[in-house]
Every structure is written in C-alpha cells, then in structure tokens.
Specification:
Strand order of the largest sheet: 8-9-10-12-11
Helix content: 40-55%
Strand content: 5-15%
Number of strands: 17
Distance between the termini: 106 Å
Number of helices: 19
Radius of gyration: 51 Å
C-alpha cells in the first residue's frame, strides 16, 4: 500500500473521529423516515460506513478521489432518499444521476464541514469558512462535483483573503440557497456573473471588495441595489471617484508640468547637446562647448596632444565613435570676429583633397572657439624628419603632396591661406602629407605662399628649424644656405641621409628650388605654373635612381 497523501490524511482523520457517533445513530437513521434535508449528509455517511467502512477508511481509496466508487446498492439508497425528501438538490436533476459524483461530494462535504469549524458536522453543515486559507481554498474550489451537489444546509460561504486568482469562481453559485458570500481581499479579475448572482434570492450579505474585477455598471442591476458601496470597495466594479478626482488633478497639473519639463529638456539638448538629436534635426558641422567637453573627457590632460600660445589641441571621440582632432582657441574676440570665424569655417568644411585634413565642424561660442577635424594617426613633418631620418625620395614625396594641395587651393579656393610650417603638416600612416591649419581672409599673396613653400623645401633638405636654431629666424636661415650653395651644398644637407652622388645632386637641386621660391623678388621667384614641373623633375630623378 502507498503512503497516505495529505488529502488522504485529512479525510481519514475526519472520518475516523466521526465514526463512533455516526455508528451509534445509524440504526435509527436507517429505520425511520427522514423528515429533513439537514440529515441527508450524515445519512449517506452512516450508510457508507455501515456498508463498507473499509472502503472509506482505506488509504488506497481516499488517496485519490478519482478512484472512489460507490457500493453496489448506492443507487437504491439514492432513490429511497428522493422519495422521502424530494427537495434534495440531486433529486431535481432532469438528466440521469451521476452516482460517482454524488458519492464523492458526500465525502468532500464531510471533510469540508470539519475544516470550516462547524460545531456539529454530524447534525448539520451551515457554513463554509476558508478565510485566509489559500492552499486549502484552492483545493476545495477544484472539486466542481461538490459545488454541483452543494448541501442545502449551507447558508454562508467565506473564501476571503485566500489569494484566489483568475476569474470569478462561478461554481460556488450552485449553492443558490446561501445568505452570505464573501470573496473579498483576493486577486480575482474579469467580469462578475451578474445574471448568476441575481438568482441568489436569499442572499443578504455580499462582499466583493479588494479585487480586480472589470468595471461594470452594477447600479443598473436591481440585484446590486440591495447592497451598499462597502460591498464593492476597491473591487474594480465601480469607478473610484476619489481616485478619479486625484487622476484629474494630477493630469491637469502634472501634464502641463510634464510638457514644460520636456520642452525645457529638448531646448537644453538643442542648445548644448544637439548630437543627441536625430540627424535630420541637427545643424550640420555645428559643435557646442558641451559636446567638445564630452568628447575630450572634460578637456582631460590625458587627451591634450599639443599646446601653444592661445591654442590647445585635443584628441577626442564624438558621439558616433569617430576620433577627431579639436583645436581650441581661447582668446576672446568681438561679435564681428566670431561672425568672421564662422564664415571661414563654413568654407573649410567644403575643402576636399587627399592632402588636406578634413574639417568636420566648428564651435563659435563666445567663450570658446574651436575647429574640429578628422583625427590622423601619425606625426607632423618635423617629428617625422627628426625621428625617422627618411631618405630623400620619401621627403620629395611629401613635398609633392603638399604642392598638390597648394595647387588645389590656389585654383579653387584662392582666398584660403594655410600654414606650411613643418609642425603644422601632418604625415599619415601611408606617408601622405596633410595640411591641417588654415587662415582665411588674411589676404596672403601668392608670393608669400610660394615663399613659405621654399622654406619648407629647405627645412626638409637640411633638417633645420629656422625659427628655433637661428637668431634671426628664416632670414638668417636663408643666408646660411646661400653661403654654402652651390659649391658646398653637401654641408647643409641632412647628414643622416645617405650621401651618394645622386642624392647630393638631387638635394642640391632641391636647395636651388627652395632658394628660388624664398626670393621675394618677382624676377626670380617661380610661379604656381612653373613650380609643379620643377618638382616633377626632382621626383622623376628619384624614380630613375630607384630603377637604376
């Protein structure tokens, strides 16, 4: 035999404790006519115990109600009872009786009567009390056969505070004779079966409070008018007038505040962090101080890559993840100066050439002006020449790239000036020069631009920094080279270059080009139309040398 289950234990304990009293009353109950439905339940139970006590008390039977079967003469007993008491619930069924369901409902009724703490379950079963008993309440609600044949003696049902979920337990309404029904403090939801409830003609106490039923116009039902509002507190059936007023007040005051807050936030984003807006709503190329601060980690010293008088250069990361170079000018300018700066930047963002760094935007705040360009991994020409000691052919390649960018600007953007100092020209990883600093509106003449290119050529040949190594700067630097050119040109050539005959000859020609370009007299300085052909000859000589 299997060990008794919890259900078996409950049934067995109740049956065992009740059997002595039942057994003593059994003879008179069977021999006399039954005049009241109150004794129907004990009668069935007496009968079953007297006929087959082992059937009820056996663990193998009570372990699972689905395995219970009535005794052979149970049908005749039911018929006799209906003849004596025609008001019994099952006697009025038009369909054939289900003897197994009636038999099991009798057993469940005996147990439930004791669980509901009725004082004398042998004589009567007046109430079902499962208040605050969630586990056992769910168990008995699952016995639909019991509610189908609900004893007529039950007048009160209390299943409050039992953690019931789901819809209204409609099968309890089979107990149509009840006078009290309490389903409060549960989690029931959905619609309330108004029509079925209306059939409870004897009910005088109904409590559906503190549930989650769907809102219903119960005031339209004559049945619900019999109860006051305390029967439906926080049930969801009636609108919560106080809660509705609170919601209206919150809406009337909260919604405008929410709108104001959202407009304020949107305004702040538009003014300070437009990069959070969709691309279609952003001003192209426009950066704000807040955006630059976020990109540089609060202008962190770790991101500061260069510094000079009035200019700080940072490496940053913008919101889309791309790396940028941010050149910040901290000097204060007038309103007119800001407008001129903005106009210059609007031109710079249009420059497109492989040897010109791409300008992605600018900032023209009163306290901070900045130009933002693409970040280029590498170093400037000055660092590259000093640190790498490149051969002559690579230096010529850099000069050719710079000259191509100069021709592009000369032909398409003649009013755009640029800085040709070795510290301002970047060298990318693929050894391409990039002009990175510009001047607009300074009215720099072509003569001056060619002069700067000549100084650059001679710096590349000599690896000298005229502004740092010569007291009178570029003027003394030019005099020093002229003093050795052409007979002793090898003395000014960068000594780290391999000084083969061809290299010295080509470097000497480069010095000659540099001296011609740095001659400010119009008679000797070559024009933009001539310089490219002169540089091409130097480049061709380098290629011939490599082939040979």
């Amino acid at each position: 035999m299997r060990p008794p289950t919890t259900l078996q234990h409950h049934f067995s304990s109740i049956l065992t404790s009740s059997m002595p009293t039942i057994f003593l009353k059994m003879p008179s109950s069977i021999s006399n006519s039954i005049s009241s439905s109150t004794f129907l339940l004990p009668l069935f139970f007496f009968y079953l115990v007297s006929i087959s006590p082992s059937l009820i008390l056996s663990a193998s039977v009570v372990e699972d109600l689905n395995n219970l079967h009535p005794p052979p003469d149970f049908n005749s007993t039911i018929i006799k009872n209906c003849l004596n008491i025609s008001s019994l619930r099952y006697c009025n069924y038009s369909s054939p009786l289900d003897l197994i369901e009636i038999f099991k409902s009798t057993i469940v009724a005996s147990h439930l009567c004791n669980e509901s703490r009725n004082p004398n379950c042998v004589e009567t079963f007046p109430k079902i009390d499962l208040h605050s008993r969630p586990k056992i309440a769910l168990l008995y609600l699952s016995f639909t056969f019991f509610w189908k044949y609900c004893p007529l003696t039950i007048l009160s049902i209390n299943i409050s505070n039992s953690s019931l979920n789901g819809g209204f337990p409609s099968h309890v309404l089979h107990c149509s004779q009840i006078q009290s029904l309490d389903l409060s403090h549960n989690k029931l939801s959905g619609d309330v079966p108004v029509q079925s409830l209306s059939q409870l003609t004897n009910i005088s106490l109904l409590n559906l409070s503190y549930n989650h039923f769907s809102e219903s116009k119960i005031s339209d039902s004559h049945f619900f008018r019999r109860f006051n509002s305390s029967s439906f507190l926080h049930s969801g059936l009636v609108p919560d007038r106080r809660g509705f007023k609170i919601k209206v007040i919150v809406f009337l005051f909260g919604f405008p505040m929410f709108v104001i807050l959202m407009v304020g936030c949107l305004g702040w984003i538009c003014l300070h962090r437009p990069d959070f807006l969709p691309a279609v709503l952003r001003r192209k190329y426009k950066f704000t101080p807040a955006m630059l601060k976020a990109a540089t980690g609060g202008f962190s010293a770790n991101n500061l890559v260069g510094k000079s008088e009035g200019v700080d250069i940072y490496r940053g990361s913008v919101r889309d993840g791309s790396q940028v170079r941010i050149e910040i000018y901290r000097d204060e300018v007038s309103g007119e100066g800001r407008r001129r700066f903005t106009g210059e930047c609007e031109i710079l963002v249009q420059l497109r050439h492989k040897n010109i760094v791409k300008v992605v935007g600018w900032c023209d705040n009163r306290r901070l002006r900045a130009i933002v360009t693409e970040w280029t991994d590498g170093e400037n020409v000055e660092m590259w020449v000093v640190g790498s000691a490149p051969p002559w052919k690579q230096r010529v390649k850099i000069l050719m790239g710079v000259l191509e960018a100069m021709r592009y600007l000369h032909e398409q953007w003649p009013h755009v000036g640029y800085d040709l100092r070795t510290c301002s020209i970047l060298v990318s990883n693929n050894r391409q020069p990039l002009i990175s600093r510009f001047r607009i509106g300074d009215q720099i003449s072509n003569t001056r631009k060619i002069y700067k290119f000549g100084i650059l050529v001679m710096e590349m040949v000599t690896n000298k920094r005229p502004r740092e190594e010569f007291e009178r700067g570029e003027e003394e630097f030019i005099e020093w080279i002229r003093m050795h050119y052409p007979e002793n040109a090898h003395m000014v050539v960068d000594e780290r270059m391999r000084k083969t005959g061809n290299t010295v000859d080509q470097a000497t020609q480069g010095i000659g080009l540099g001296l011609m370009c740095s001659d400010l007299s119009r008679e000797r300085q070559p024009t933009f139309d001539v310089i490219p052909s002169m540089m091409s000859k130097l480049s061709d000589l380098c290629r011939v040398q490599i082939i040979s």
